[in-house]
Design brief:
Blueprint (H helix, E strand, L loop, with lengths): L7 H11 L4 E5 L9 E5 L10 H10 L8 E5 L5 H8 L3 E6 L2 H13 L5 E4 L13 E4 L23 H9 L9 E7 L4 H10 L3 E10 L2 E9 L1
Parallel strand pairs: 3-4, 3-6, 4-5, 6-7
Antiparallel strand pairs: 1-2, 7-9, 8-9
Helix pairs in contact: 2-3
Length: 224
């Protein structure tokens, strides 16, 4: 068991305290010296600087050719990944179930002078039907039923309903050329999550493995 696993509830509590106030965060792409992406994190919105998953995804996306590609960030939080994709030339859609997050994404898109199609949606429910070239997902993966908007960023349901609904709906939004990337940490039940996707016909492949502070994170590509 990873040393961080028993600390996860405490880390979430500390994060909740820290994010009770408005914060700022910036990301500097390696090839963009002096051109930081700066965002404001409103209270109750997932903070990309507190956990390593967002930074790993941003670095991963830095190597993707997104020019004129349709790009969906499912559960976008502050919107920093969507903003980066837009700056790389993608046609970006950013969704979130949280009203707080939706307003935060709009604010940060305006601050960074990028166009993003922002959609309040529970997974794919209210996203207009289309086939995306790229879908990026940094999912909630703790096994518990969310009770508040804020908790939807952390908890996937007592029976992993988030992932069941995700893989039930996704086939209508991808084609054989679509690239779907999901990041998971070893602190979650990866075996269970993968089994849900596999039961819906999805194949999993590790695209990147990165250990930070002793915690292994994996970016998976999933494909029908």
């Amino acid at each position: 068991m990873n040393i961080l696993t028993p600390l996860a509830p405490l880390l979430r509590k500390l994060a909740k305290v820290y994010t009770s106030k408005e914060r700022e965060f910036s990301f500097s792409p390696a090839a963009w010296a002096g051109r930081d992406i700066k965002v404001i994190i409103k209270p109750g919105v997932f903070h990309p600087g507190l956990f390593i998953s967002t930074k790993i995804l941003l670095t991963f996306i830095n190597d993707l050719n997104l020019e004129n590609e349709s790009f969906l960030e499912l559960g976008a939080g502050s919107g920093i990944i969507s903003i980066f994709a837009a700056k790389k030339g993608a046609v970006v859609y950013a969704s979130d179930i949280s009203v707080m997050a939706i307003e935060n994404i709009k604010l940060n898109a305006k601050m960074n002078d990028v166009k993003i199609n922002v959609i309040e949606s529970d997974l794919f429910k209210d996203i207009p039907q289309q086939e995306f070239n790229f879908i990026i997902i940094n999912p909630p993966y703790y096994q518990k039923d969310p009770r508040t908007e804020e908790e939807y960023a952390w908890f996937c349901g007592s029976n992993y309903e988030y992932f069941t609904n995700l893989f039930d709906s996704m086939p209508s939004y991808i084609n054989s050329s679509s690239k779907v990337y999901i990041i998971l940490s070893e602190v979650c039940n990866i075996t269970k999550i993968k089994s849900i996707g596999e039961s819906k016909g999805f194949n999993w492949k590790i695209e990147l493995q990165k250990s930070v502070w002793g915690e292994k994170n994996f970016i998976y590509s999933v494909k029908l």
